[in-house]
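Thread amino acids onto this structure.
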């Protein structure tokens, strides 16, 4: 930790000594925070990208999903668009994307295949981070505008989902056959 500069080390030690697992919790984002932002030199924007990039659904899904991204991503990053308008456009984008997932046959098998294919990679040091969370029984809140079903199954598959880990995200609703039929609302997007 030589690269960390602390103005008042004694004050920091005093504050840290008060931290106990029963009086605090950790908050994290999933996409590009806990997970790698780049895989094989390519940018991975969200958990949705795993569905699209792995071609688990039809080429029609891939094409239409990319079309939505090309339309809405510039709005997301445009500093000249008022925030209220951006918020509305993000809800519109996420809604259209979930409707597209449902229309194109998204199902639990796709999630299982992504997990099996080991496409999601955590950042360096994440295993140690989760080991400490388990060891000290620390509550962890994971907020994500991504696909909650996939995030949850990923953590289950790695044995990292503890009773004190809570994922607040967008979830698809599946029928008894594992086919996506709806999604939770209100949607979480990049600005809320």
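Threaded sequence (192 positions):
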């Amino acid at each position: 930790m030589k690269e960390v500069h602390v103005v008042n080390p004694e004050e920091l030690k005093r504050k840290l000594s008060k931290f106990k697992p029963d009086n605090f919790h950790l908050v994290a984002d999933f996409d590009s925070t806990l997970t790698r932002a780049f895989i094989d030199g390519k940018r991975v924007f969200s958990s949705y990208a795993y569905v699209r990039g792995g071609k688990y659904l039809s080429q029609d899904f891939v094409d239409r999903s990319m079309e939505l991204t090309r339309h809405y991503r510039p709005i997301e990053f445009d500093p000249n668009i008022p925030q209220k308008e951006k918020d509305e456009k993000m809800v519109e984008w996420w809604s259209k994307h979930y409707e597209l997932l449902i229309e194109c046959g998204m199902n639990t098998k796709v999630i299982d295949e992504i997990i099996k294919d080991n496409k999601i990679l955590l950042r360096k040091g994440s295993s140690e981070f989760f080991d400490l969370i388990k060891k000290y029984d620390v509550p962890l809140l994971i907020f994500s505008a991504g696909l909650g079903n996939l995030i949850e199954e990923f953590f289950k598959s790695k044995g990292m989902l503890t009773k004190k880990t809570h994922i607040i995200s967008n979830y698809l609703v599946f029928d008894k056959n594992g086919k996506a039929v709806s999604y939770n609302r209100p949607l979480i997007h990049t600005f809320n």
